[in-house]
Amino acid sequence: MPAEGLTLAEDILRFWFEECKPWQWFRSDRDFDRSLSERFRPLAEAAQEQGLIDWEVSQTSSLALVLLLDQFSRQIWRDQARAFQGDLRAQRLSHLALDQHWLEHEPQKARRQFWLMPLLHAERLETVNKAIPLLERWVDISTADVARRNRDMLIKHGRYPWRDGALGR
Description:
Blueprint: H1 3-19, H2 22-26, H3 30-48, H4 59-76, H5 87-99, H6 109-121, H7 125-138, H8 141-157, H9 164-167
Helix pairs in contact: 1-4, 3-4, 4-5, 4-6, 5-6, 6-7, 7-8
């Protein structure tokens, strides 16, 4: 991976895990969304367009790519279908992190949480069911409980109803 890519990946991780407060990760805040978009939208667009392939080779850059595809996309394109465009690639990277043992070598719980977040966000019952014990093991019970609530929504509706407006369904 070129040094520039690693520097960008490290900037993403520093922004998310050091500059941001944890409450900013999940709260809807237009000012925060706008700031994140101004700073990272070009990288999120590149990730969604199957770019940044060379980022998939290391633990650091792959986690930054997961953030671009999953969390950043949800904030940059809030209430739009594009917010979910990177989900399948992010889920694939979550599985790669498991296969490469990156989770077990990651000492920070917050980073492990975001490695697994794409699995919690999946609209496939099988994927969310697999995420629950992983979240219990690598993150915490309360995050696993969010996955359980998501699982219940999938059982009841077959989808996440809160995405219906954005996805036009």
